[in-house]
C-alpha cells in the first residue's frame, strides 16, 4: 500500500522505494544521484509551485538506460519523471509523490538531417538553440520558439509553442513521429518521416498534445524550415514637398506648383 500525501497523489512505500534505488544503484553506479542539491535542481522550474524534489536522479545516456529505469520503477510501483532542461512553467518536472527523475541532457545528439525533405531526427536532450545552430549552415531552422532554450523532448512532451505559432503552428504540428518508452519499458514508434499517413491511429498526437504530461521519449523526427532571407532594402526617394497645391477652399482643379519626384521601386 502506498502513502497518501495530498488528494489522490500517493508516495510509494519506503521499502519499495529503497528496493528500487538499490536496484538502480547496481545498474547505474555513480550515474544514480541522491544528493539533496541535485534533487532540488531537478524539481526547480520557473513557476510559482513549490519545489518538490524526486527521491533520486538517473543520468541517462542511451535508450536502454531509460528502459531499465522504467522497468525497475514499474516493478516497485515507483513514479518516474522525465527531465529535459527544467524551463517549464507548469511544474511538469516536480515530483509531488517522489520517485525517480530521468535526466536526458546527455542524450543530445542530432542523428540525421534530411535537408531535401526538410526534416531531422534527434535525441530528446537536444535543445532548440543547439538544433538551430547545427542547421544554420544548411539554410534551415526549427521554427518553434517558446522563449527559453528548452529541450526538444520536453517541448514535445508539453506541447510547447510561442509567437511563431501564428505562422508555423505549435510543437504538436511539427513532430512527425516519436519513439516512446511505455510504462512497462517497451518502446513503441508512433509514426514515420512521411508528412502524411492514414495508416493506423494517430499516436504521435496522443503523446504530444498536452501541457501537463511528461513521457520519456527518444529520437523524434522533426520537420524543419528554410531560413528566411533578409532582403536588402531598396532606395526610395520621396518628394520633399507636395507635388500639388490647392488654391482656395472651393477650387476643384489642382494647380501644379512643383515638379513631382518619381519614386523608384
Please state the second-level CATH architecture of the largest domain: 2-Layer Sandwich
State the CATH topology of the largest domain.
Uridine Diphospho-n-acetylenolpyruvylglucosamine Reductase, domain 3
The CATH first-level class of the largest domain comes to Alpha Beta
The profile of the biggest β sheet is: 4 strands, mixed
Number of strands: 16
Mean pLDDT across all residues, rounded?
Answer: 79
Strand order in the largest sheet? 3-4-6-5
The tally of helices reads 7
Labels describing this entry:
265 residues, alpha+beta, Uridine Diphospho-n-acetylenolpyruvylglucosamine Reductase, domain 2, Uridine Diphospho-n-acetylenolpyruvylglucosamine Reductase, domain 3, 2 domains, 4-stranded mixed beta sheet, 16 strands, globular, disordered C terminus
Polypeptide structure, described:
It is built from seven helices and 16 strands. It is an alpha+beta fold. 22% of the residues lie in helices and 18% in strands. Residues 211-215 and 230-265 have low confidence and may be disordered. The chain has helices at 14-28, 36-41, 63-75, 128-135, 152-158, 165-168, 203-207, and strands at residues 3-6, 9-11, 32-33, 56-59, 80-83, 100-103, 110-114, 119-122, 140-141, 179-181, 187-189, 217-218, 221-223, 225-226, 244-245, 255-256. It folds into two domains: 3-103, Uridine Diphospho-n-acetylenolpyruvylglucosamine Reductase, domain 2, CATH 3.30.43.10; 110-226, Uridine Diphospho-n-acetylenolpyruvylglucosamine Reductase, domain 3 (2-Layer Sandwich). The N and C termini lie far apart (77 Å). The longest helix has 15 residues, at 14-28. A four-stranded mixed β-sheet has the order 3-4-6-5. It has a three-stranded antiparallel β-sheet with strand order 7-8-13, covered by helices on one side.
